[in-house]
Predict the 3D structure of the following.
Amino acid sequence: MRNFVGWRYIIAIALPLLLASLGVISMTTDLLKQVAGNADRAEELRNREIVVRLLKNAETDLVRLAGQNARWDEAARHVYPDVDAQWIRATWGSINSIGHAYDRVVVFERETGQVLASEGGGQGAALDLKSYLGGTFDALSSGFGEFDLAQPISSYAKTLDGPAVVAVAPVMRGAERDAPLRFVAFVRKLDGKFFSAMQSDKLVHELHSVPASMAQDQGLLVKTITGDPAFGLVWQGAGLGAEATSHARQKASLIVGFLLLVMTGIGFVCWRLILTLATNEERALHQALHDSLTELPNRAALVETLRELRAANTPHVIAYADLDGFKEVNDSYGHQVGDRLLRAVGAGIVRLAANATMASRMGGDEFVVLFEGEAAEFDAGKFADMLLHFLAKPFDIDGRVAYVGASIGISKSESSDGDELEILRRADVAMYRAKEEGKNRKRVYDQSFDVERAESQAIATELRGIIRNRSLDLAFQPVISAKDMRITGVEALARWPRHSRRTVSPDRFIAVAESAGLIDELGELMLDNACAAARDWPGLRVSVNISAVQLNNPRFVERSLAIIESRGIAPRRVEFEITETSLIRDADRAKLVFKDLQRHGIKIALDDFGTGFSSIGYLRTFNFDRIKIDKSIISKVLSNPGELAIVQGTLLVARGLSADVTAEGVEKQDEVAVLKLAGCTELQGHYFHEAMEASAFGKLVRAQREREAERKLA
Ligand code: C2E
Ligand code: CA
Ligand code: CA
């Protein structure tokens, strides 16, 4: 998960989505609060209005009531000159009024405030009006000018009975204007009972009075006529806000729920999208750094790792393996088999390179395995040996048997390396060196390789021109019959053109041709030239050296026959020589090719016998027409009895296989005697002739023919 590229997308898509969701929820909550607040405020305003109206109504009603009762002649008659307590009790103090329209009625002297009669609430005339009304008394009793014109005066007051509204009016009395003025006061208590009686709809709940000091911040502060705080009124809201919120909350919950559902949906889609994007990106990244065929890291990945190791100063070693014979498998079995072979080799390399830093495919049939650390060089060498061993066994791909080997170049990092590609270049040089030395081996880079590589490249370049111009030289070495010392055949040997600035031995340029992919063309040129020359030497066998690489060319037999025929040479006059060591690889294929050639009359000779490791038993499986014992053995025949035993043993086997035996590199007369005695059928070597130009060989042949003609005549 550490390298999960999706994090970027999650941050880019999911995070904003989450934030948006949170934002919506918080905004909705805010809105709800606002709705509740607004509802509460609206309710508060309405309630206050109701309460104020209730108060006002109570006051207005009481003022009207006071006015009507005070300007009443009947009342005046019972108040002046003496107060008729009887009447007052019966009229103003009747139970219809007390407790319904007002709670107390008091008749008093304006000047002194002395109470003349008091009904409702007790105390009667003993009521002390000043203390009963508190600060309101003076304002109420002295507030009149011309009393007869005056309207009743009213005030809210904090009375001894509790919060109340008081309306005071002078009792009107016709003519007796000088007598002391008497007032009647009506008191209406503003208590819970009153309020509940006043509001039938019960819009305002639990409306009740509190001391003025408690109504500073909430409720309503009721003031007296003089502006002093009288008492407070408080009430309970109907919870409209809460009600509104609860409604809104239900709707909002639905909306938020729906929103969350949508968000979840979007989130899910995004998640899928993120996964797809992340997978795509990971795949693209993987593709950029991996080879699609083998799934191994590719060249880019390797170069990147090499760069990192170099930057970190970590010693490292690479083994650069190029498959030998892969092209032939591809050409003869097709790309599908070739691809499967590469995959099989790749899998094998991964298994063998378990302790490597990286096993990569460079493209084509090239693999590079990278090792790091102090033991890297040892590890790389061991890996190379294991790979060669692994490739020694053929691959079975869908019943097709494929042989490949590997040329492996090993190179280690140097602190002087110009860049990370230098180690690759050196391993490549070492790999080429391994190829030139005969393939299927490992070589550790040496500085001298660079010079030789440059030389090889120069040789390859020149060789291309030589092949194009068909300017290759040929030398011919006679082959002598051991029985009568007559020339019975000739071996064609390739020669670097004499006009060239350099001299290059055939061993060298043949190796270059093999590693540079020029051997097929060179071989065909050699065969063609040899056959062309052989037309002048009728009856003689002409031997041509064939590189094992040529056998892998699927058209080898067909093309060889075409060349031989085009020169008008009978195929049975032609012999192909092939070295023992090169045959060990892909012996099955070689057997098939040989069989095909032999079917057309071409003979097959095993060259350089005794230099390789093949057993005599192994030879039996091939049907050679001839075995050529290598000059290294012949040169020891005289001095070393063991070598003679080899020659004798070979001759025995060869006779058993009905093959001829040629001794190569015969240089001494004594060798001739021993080899003849041992039973060699033919001899070849400097003792008789060195390789020569065609014209020289032609002379030899003519001379021999003339001698024979003379002998016949004689
Ligand atoms: P080879 O096929 O074993 O050829 C014989 C080599 O031994 C020749 O060397 C020849 O000059 C040399 N030789 C012959 N008699 C004597 C002797 O008495 N003493 C000594 N010391 N050497 C003797 P050359 O021409 O240098 O060829 C070297 C090798 O190059 C050949 O070995 C052959 O394997 C390869 N070669 C030459 N021409 C061709 C060719 O056209 N195609 C291929 N594929 N290989 C070729
Ligand atoms: Ca030869
Ligand atoms: Ca030879």
User: Anything to note?
Assistant: The chain has three domains: 52-236, 299-444, 453-713.
